[in-house]
Amino acid sequence: GEEHYNCISALHKSMRGSDENASLYWLARMLEGGEDPLYVARRLVRFASEDIGLADPLALTQAVAAYQGCHFIGMPECEVILAQCVVYFARAPKSIEVYKAYGNVKECLRMHTGPLPPVPLHLRNAPTRLMKNLGYGKGYKYNPMYKEPVEQDYLPEELKGTDFFKERKT
């Protein structure tokens, strides 16, 4: 019932608040109450990207490993795997930078009126002669061939200069 959602919310908020003791409590309360460990593991995968993100890129690896471990061995043995992951997340630095930036991109797409801007010609794949003749791929600079970063636009002209990490584009 509702307590299912209340407990997962409490677990998330305890990890987000870096409280390892409360995080373990809410995890144990869920598992000892019969919660599906794979449900908890799936929520941890989401938490790894949403709340920890680039502050600790290995968090996602930890979460996926915990999910796989739970899938392989099940309860009750997987409880310690989840406990390790929950404590790791509670202790981890937090960053919502990617989460917010992706939200800004989604808002940009939702607020756009009319057809979406076309992919710039230089970024298009040109597997046929016709496409090459139409200018697909023309002028594209293949970065690995250069010693220094290259000057090249990757967004459509209408979005040139947009930084989804700093602003909301509408």
Automatic annotation (TrEMBL):
Coiled-coil ranges per UniProt: none
Does Membrane count among this protein's keywords?
Answer: no
Instruction: List keywords of the entry alphabetically.
Output: ATP-binding, Nucleotide-binding
Recorded GO CC terms: nucleus
Domain named MgsA AAA+ ATPase C-terminal: which ranges? 17-168
**ATP-binding: present as a keyword of the record?**
yes
Instruction: State the Gene Ontology terms under molecular function.
Output: ATP binding; DNA binding; enzyme activator activity; single-stranded DNA helicase activity
Q: How far does the signal peptide extend, from start to end residue?
A: none
Q: Name one GO biological process term.
A: DNA synthesis involved in DNA repair
Q: Which PANTHER family match?
A: ATPASE WRNIP1, WERNER HELICASE-INTERACTING PROTEIN 1 FAMILY MEMBER
- The protein's name is WRIP1 ATPase
Q: Which gene encodes it?
A: Wrnip1
